[in-house]
Records
---
Amino acid sequence: MAASDGSLNGNGAHPPARDGRPHTPHIWQPRHMRYAHLTGWGIRVPDRVVTNVDLEAVVDTTDDWIRTRTGIQERRFASERDSVTQMGFEAARAALNRADVLPNDIDMIIVATSTPEDIYPSSASKIQNLLGATRAGAFDLSAACSGFVYGLNMAAQAIRSGSINTALVIGSEVNSRVLDWNDRSTCVLFGDGAGAVLLEGSDQAGGFMDAVLGSDGSGAELLGIPTVGTATLAEGRQMHKLHMDGREVFRFAVHIITESVRDVLEKANLSLADVDLIVPHQANQRILSAAARNLNVSEALFYSNVHRYGNTSAASIPIALYEAEREGRLKPNDNVVVVGFGGGLTWAAAALQWQSMQEKAPKGLAYRLSQGRRELQYIGAFWRARAMKTYRRVEAALRGSPAKHANLREGTPPKGKPEEAPRDKR
Ligand code: UT7
């Protein structure tokens, strides 16, 4: 007997189709689980170095205060040519070179940023265009300084489910453009830069292990950048300028690093003794020292380059991963924990096995050839973008303006009789 909605009979089985053949519904089957490996990494930081002494000339501060309270010695500031998109693109190029992957092979691009040129279009779409990654979906992700680890988790889970195979995760920021130079407690802390990692799917075990993500919006007012949707600015806030309650965020940061490192290790079935390096968001050396004390591990287990770049928000972890590898602190198959925290409030930690996929062929002739193909794709992407713009202009000119076709739409007045503006009836 057919059920009242006509879909199933009384036994829960589908009724026969009208032609009498049995109905066999399509059942979606998940693809088999894969592993997501980090195979490429790259960075781009602006050339301009700004030291604490340079800041003494423009802010009521001292080199000694900044060093002792934060560990920061210098940071990079963007020039007019540097942007989230441009720096992210260059970091992505370096990651693709390291992994020896063509832009055409990328399925997804995620950019974590709080300082994009536009609310939309996303920086990820613009980077997708510059790379010529024509098969990739692209979006920006807003989770402040935790954004890179959020993005890493999203990309890795999409790869593990078999939905995609190759993803770029980028953190890119131009904090120097949102600093309030009248607030000495924040303007000395931040810097600019970008870092990118490439993730690739494989049946070989390893790579991304597990992650914990968290948010507590009750602390939203502690750290932020008001923007276009703000109806009324809270007292002391400025549009597009960063504000922070440093002491509260400091307390939160120490607590949440400790908690989320413990949580992700438990989830990944690891202990602290299994961890070769913790790569935290780089905000303040004192935060890292306090977290190391809480976890009862040596401070040396926490990688730090905050003295060189200050706080680069979502870019700090990929920049730190890149430098840790370059300095020999990260070796193939090392267990790494990355941990981010910041505005939202948000936090995120992930456990990874570093460089655990068999390396591709040594960088010989084949690598140089594919390097050449990558460069050709970037040139092709440039000309493709120009051609598409011209095509859209020509097509619009040939078709005419949408107003010409207004009479084709129901309810629009016939051609030649412009719609009258509503009259004031008084
Ligand atoms: O990426 C997002 C996550 N962000 C963070 O994790 C940042 C967390 N917070 C911090 O790192 C620290 O709270 C700060 C570095 C922001 C501040 O350090 P603090 O030790 O908490 O300093 P404080 O705010 O308690 O201020 C101590 C003193 C104050 O003077 P009084 O009131 O004691 O006379 C400040 O006015 O230091 C003064 N001060 C400065 N002095 C010289 C604040 N900023 C400066 C400065 N130069 N730049």
---
Amino acid sequence: MTRPIIIAGNWKHNPQRIPGESLFREISEGTISRLSADGGDSPVRVVLFPPLPWLGWFVSNASQFDRSAVEIGVQEVSDRPLGAFTGEVGAQLAQQFGAEWALVGHSERRSIFGETDPQAASRVKAAATAGLRPILCIGETLEQREAGETFEVVSRQLETGLSKLDEEFEYALAYEPVWAIGTGRTATTQQVEEVHRHLREVLRRARGASADEVPILYGGSVKPDNAQALLGIDGVDGALVGGASLLSASFLGILDAGIATA
Ligand code: PEP
């Protein structure tokens, strides 16, 4: 089973507008030149998750970009339908304004905004039903790792997070140990490999044969200098990149590592 390699950039609540436009242009041009070098047959896909106002910008500037090179996602979707829900942005609207992917359950949403596994399940379902590909983010805290609870925590997050999702929808997982996000501290290749192997087994038990089609990304302080080692691990199907996606050179360096290991 060949899964795509997904190199995804999570811009979080960054950058400001003017540098953001340049960043997008540089990443877009760099991606096009790299992915078109092999005649467009690359198994590597590039997805950016900018803050929500950028969606409108991408749509109004769509003619300037090759949208097939860089796909766009939202960092969060509401599971509410259209209606009297002030402040919410649902999956349906995000999809209509050009989003193709949605992050769900990022650790910052869980730890800062109190999101739970059952909420993640509803958001995964809402995203997929509206035609977005959800990426369910899971990962243990340092305390949980030190208490030997890593496998138990990620299994629960995976099983609950996917519990409302029907078989036919396309989705991905991102294993992001919370202690490695934005800290400069990266999980060792052995830690990443064993959790990814465990997740694949849990996924097979929960979802049957279709589990093998699901990309499982790693996230947590991925940088150009560690990307090749991380992306070369058996069972790692891409990277979810935070800080390093805010500099085109470092994001494209990670993309180069993804292409080299594909
Ligand atoms: C993230 O935001 O998902 C992330 C992995 O951030 P960083 O690469 O900065 O650790």
